[in-house]
């Protein structure tokens, strides 16, 4: 059974989400990269605040894996920059673990199937309603 998040965890999740998103957007601006949008969709810290799962969405999808791998390679630099920004709010910055959030791709695939007009539930040649 999963334990609910404490109010402190929720506050830290929100603060981390905001600061990491800000760091990533600044890095994109400094690198002068055009047509790229990176957003932090969700952050989950453990109850002991030692680890944080960060879910990232990258648009356009064709470049997502390349940029996501770049973010993972620079995880230690991101953590260091985060510690400089949040030194007055958190005593210890959690270990950052990044995950690619592909929920937008999943939603797109569902919408595409719905628009195609085919009924995925109906089996060809057989009618299950008896």
Textual characterization of the structure:
45% of the residues lie in helices and 18% in strands. The longest helix has 24 residues, at 7-30. It contains four helices and three strands; from the N terminus they run H-E-E-H-H-E-H. It is α+β, with helices and mostly antiparallel strands and 130 residues long. It has one domain (7-116): K homology (KH) domain (GMP Synthetase, Chain A, domain 3). Helix 1 packs across helix 3 (75-85). The mean pLDDT is 86.
Strand content: 15-25%
**What value does the Rg take, in angstroms?**
20 Å
Q: Helicity level, as a percent range?
A: 40-55%
Secondary-structure arrangement, i.e. CATH architecture = 2-Layer Sandwich
Short description:
By secondary structure, the protein is of the alpha+beta class. It has helices at residues 7-30, 64-73, 75-85, 103-116; strands at 37-45, 51-59, 95-100.
Write the layout of secondary structure elements.
Layout: H1 7-30, E1 37-45, E2 51-59, H2 64-73, H3 75-85, E3 95-100, H4 103-116
Parallel strand pairs: 2-3
Antiparallel strand pairs: 1-2
Helix pairs in contact: 1-3
For the structure shown, list the relevant keywords:
single chain, 130 residues, alpha+beta, GMP Synthetase, Chain A, domain 3, 3-stranded mixed β-sheet, 4 helices, 3 strands, 45% helix
């Amino acid at each position: 059974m999963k334990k609910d998040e404490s109010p402190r965890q929720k506050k830290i999740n929100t603060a981390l989400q905001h600061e990491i998103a800000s760091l990533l957007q600044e890095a994109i601006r400094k690198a002068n990269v055009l047509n790229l949008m990176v957003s932090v969709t969700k952050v989950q810290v453990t109850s002991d605040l030692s680890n944080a799962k960060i879910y990232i969405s990258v648009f356009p999808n064709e470049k997502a894996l390349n940029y996501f791998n770049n973010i993972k390679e620079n995880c230690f630099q991101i953590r260091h920059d985060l510690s400089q920004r949040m030194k007055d709010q958190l005593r210890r910055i959690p270990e950052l673990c990044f995950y690619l959030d592909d929920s937008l791709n999943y939603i797109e695939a569902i919408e595409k199937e719905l628009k195609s007009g085919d009924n995925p539930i109906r089996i060809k040649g057989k009618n299950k309603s008896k």
